[in-house]
């Protein structure tokens, strides 16, 4: 796993999906900690785009400081935001008004990390 720490920005990691882009990703086995950011890891679909996201957050656990995740599907979005999370030390904050669809682990088509 990776350790991401002491970020002073608004987000430690931020992925914004624009236009008609597609993002398929997972974040697993990480310790995202001690960040000065409001959110350690944020993923969003931009307003009024046709972009799509499939994201899995699994097993991101810190011994002392919680990882903070934010998933954001903005208003007017046409594209789908498909999302799985499990075994994180805190649940992701979801910011609709766009819909975020829960999917099963493995639904993004990325093989699980052994």
Walkthrough of the structure:
By secondary structure, the chain is mainly beta. 0% of the residues lie in helices and 44% in strands. The protein has no helices and 10 strands. It has a 4-stranded parallel sheet with strand order 2-5-7-9, with no helix packed on it. It has a 4-stranded parallel sheet with strand order 3-6-8-10, with no helix packed on it. Strands 1-4 form a two-stranded parallel ribbon. It starts with a strand and ends in a 12-residue tail after the last strand. The mean pLDDT is 84.
In short:
With 114 residues, this protein is mainly beta. Helices cover 0% and strands 44% of the residues. It has no helices and ten strands.
